[in-house]
Known about the structure:
Chain A is an alpha+beta fold.
Amino acid sequence: MSTVRLESVAKRFGTTTVVAGVSLDVNEGELIALLGPSGSGKTTLLRMIAGFEPVDAGRIVLDGEDVTARSALERRCGMVFQHYALFPHLSVGDNVAYGLASERMPRPAREARTAEVLALVDLRGFESRNVASLSGGQQQRVALARAVAPHPRVLLLDEPLSNLDPSLRERTRRELGELVRRTGITTVLVTHEQEEAFDLADRIAVLHRGVLEQLGTPEDLYQRPATPFVAGFVGRTSELAGTVVGTEGELVRVAAAGGEWLATAKAGTSGAVRLLVRPEAVRLAPSGAITGTVIRRRFAGASAFFTVRVNDREEIEIAAPSAAAKEGDTVRLEPAGGGVHAWLAT
Amino acid sequence: MAGHVTLRRIVGPLLLVVLAWLVVEPMVLVGVDAIRVQGSWTIGPVRTFLADPNEWRAAFNSAWLALASVVLGGILGVSLGVFTRLADFPGRRVVSALLALPAVLPPLVGVVAFLFLYGESGIFAHIVMAITHADTPPWRFDGAAAVVLIHVTTMYVYSYLLVRGALATFDPALLEAATALGASRSRAIRTIVLPLLRPAIGNGALLTALSSLASFSAPYVFGGGFRVLPTQIVSTRLNGDIPIAMVETLALVVLAIVALVLASRMGGIGTRGAGKGLAPAPARTGSRRSRFVLGAIAWGVTAWLLLPHLMLLMVSFVERGGWTSTAMPTAWTGANYTSLITDPVQWRPFATSLWMATLAAGVAAALALAVAMVARDPGQRLSRWLEAGLALPWAVPGTVYAIALATMFSVLQPAAGRIVLIGTLWLLPLAYLIRSLPVVGRPLVSAVRALDPALDEAAASLGAGPWRAFGTVILPLLLPVLAGAAALAFVTGLGDFMTSIILYTYDTRPVSLEILGAIRGGEFGEAAAYGVVLTVLSTGAFLLAERSRRNA
């Protein structure tokens, strides 16, 4: 098992900065997800760790060894590509054994290891199958088996589930998580799906425009977002304009949309603020101080998301039992405690 | 990756030098020889060329012949392409495949077939003579009209294939949208299909124009007093007036460049829409009668266009002297084929063509593969230069390259890359190699660029160095395309006439020259048998190339 350290790693394509001095540590056996929207630099960062993109500035350290100038060949990172990149002219077994042959492993040992990893991904006996004859989920598992077979120092997963249809994705995600934990390989996963990151990762690095916005556990990101971007990108939020009217311990009291909210904020926050409110941080209450009209109701099984217009400009989304209100109803709301974050208005 | 980059830095410039030596330098020397006579610079040959009305006439003939071939061949090819894709009639698929057959008729072989068909002693002349009880042939099949007819009925295939190819990826939603907006089928074709087919039509026109400008066999066999630049060049060279021949060669290059420029202006937005790239379905015509009429037209036109093939096949079974004054042959034999193999004198040109074409195809494929690998990134300047080097022989008529190579390899100047190859075994295979570079280069460059870069990265992440990744991942994936491209190069060399007639020696006399000799000696059966075998080999190679393209 290995550690990965990125020290102020940067990358530019022409005049565009794609990765702007990212530093982070991945511990032994840890699974870290690089999460961000398209163009946030997460795949470029992963490819720099793999050695497929040269680094413009900064250092990449694997197991204490500076590999920044080393080729992909020398880094020994196993990688699962977005489209799997299975060699179409080789059988499943030959694909999996490809990296073992690079290590000049004797044939019997190679065959034994191939069988072992195929069993690990639940594809025992698939050695002679043509990769084109496999389903998307099976191809994904072959790609994973191929990547882990040569005992890589680090496993890099580039949106490994994005090619699967939704019904298969959840099951495969579960299997992937179990497998990675069973092998214990230090893993970096790139994804733009927060659900995938939450489900699989020990810690998540949220990237935005090449900048590392926050690195933390899923709970940290959701409950203590470090930036407005993280608060808006991770989970659902409604945004209100407010004014700080006092403090209560580490929290600030903010007047917004006709009500008063307790919100997390940086020390010294005062005056006009942006208030980001999670759907579960507000509830329907007959005596609530905030009055509004339900303009949209989105059914989600036992509960529903209601969009309530609270004034000319602002809307709040709340989660409530699906029969609690219908479109056009006038409702009263009150803060439910937690899930509210304030930042200085810019 | 680092290994690839280093390799590219070393091999790339080396390949550029090789292409400059083989492709560019011979052309430059033609230009130099046109203005350098006996060691001194002069524009005398250019003046002589410009002052001679015969030269002007040949240039003018070449130009209008190309224009007529483009317009008439284009109308025929585009109409047939659209018709066989969008009209519904019995046997549509068979007709579509049959109409592509002229693509596999080697140049001289096709011309010979016309001789048997429309010539003074051809089948049609015999039929008319039999009906009218005349003693003399009713027409002479020669001059400009004969050449135009041959060009149109053989070169339509370029526009036909390109238009069909473009329609295969045409977004059917565009036609459906036009229909939904009230356009009739003919209006939709006129206002939607044809404008979007502009690039395909433009490329078809360019191929036709370049083929017509380079056409040697049809004007040579049927031209009579109708001189065009390729025949003029050969004639001037035979008269020993080398500087004038060089100026004529340059004039032909200028016409080819004009054709290239005009065709590039025909470019437009492509045929791909936002849909899934499925070919539009043929229109279901309401009545059985209209389907029958459409079918009759389609089969009639196809039969007419394929008559040369059928004629060639028929004549190949005619005994020597077995067809002289009757409408149809009176005696049949398979001896024309058996003697090709059993008679060493007849087998020799075949063996010669086979080894030369095989060698040229092999080396051309290897060279093009190396260029394709180095030029994988289309954004780099080196890639663009290498690609241009591969494509240049395509834009220059074969006769011109033959002259250029004869010039280049006629003196010993090692420092200038010039060695004496003229009169040796090697010049003709070298000419085949250069002529086939565009044929092998284009599919290989496309195939290499279409490879998922993640495959290389996957191999590297699994510990494979650049050579192992190439040998175990890239090369196996490219093999079908490589085989197909090499097959096309093989066919190009096997049937070549244009360069062969200028560069052949006693030891490298190819099949095409043997066919010409057989025609001159009245051995029509033997000539046709050679032609049929060449056509079958070409068809096999084209089918292999097509299958490879699909597999890739």
